[in-house]
Amino acid sequence: GGIAKLNSDWLHGEPMGMWLARSTDFPVIGRYFTEKWMVYAFAYGGICVDLFGLPLLLIKRTRWLGLVMLLTFHLLNNSLFGVLLFPLLMVALLPLFFALTWWEKLPLGKQQTQQMTTPHPRWRLTFALLAIYCTFQLIFPLRHFFIPGNVSWTEEGEKFSWHMKLRDKRAIITYIIVQPSTGDSWEELPEDYLTDRQMAFLPKNPDGILQFAHYLATLWDDVEVYADVRVSLNGREYSPLVDPTINLATEPRNWGRSEWLLPLTTPLSQRRRGLVG
Question: pTM of this prediction?
Fold first, then answer.
């Protein structure tokens, strides 16, 4: 998560500045949410928590500092940004980083501690499986570095990469259906087919855009499906995300670079950059 935040937009205070500006009614500190220094504190504080939270917990002398830092971080995520389950789960797991004396005082904890004094004969196998699992968890989230393009724009390699709450995207989407045999063409709006929850996801997500194009292609015989998609990333001007000349009905889903996606060329606006300089 800390590595993911080391990108130009986050270092320039976006989308954090946009999010904080919507919550100026937050108790006590909300009135400062439009101040440059407060945006800095949240943006760079998030980087510090992600990069240094675990090392602080692993070192006995700094464990309480790590505890306070992570408690503040997770409780703010829950109360300010509406992240529900994840912060509470992380808070519940924090005691695992402290000595087991508190656990051993419980009847069940004492019983289990006594039972586990002798190493299990298959500990080497368990260790090997855990090593493989941990290695995968370290490498898999970084796969987007090997896919060309801005991962926050294309979302290729974004899943399971610790990029949650890292971007703000707004999108406008229209599908154009063309029937070559008759020469007819017409527009289709996804909101006529999808729920509000699905619409909150689809226009901003290229994989969802492609899946829905494949679905539309099944509704009529011999049709081509094109998409006019314009997206605003972290307060930028709206820019085309999808090549409108490519028939999405024939494009496959894949794990790498999709040629039907256009690169992000619109810079963060000077007004946004001015937030931090």
Answer: 0.83
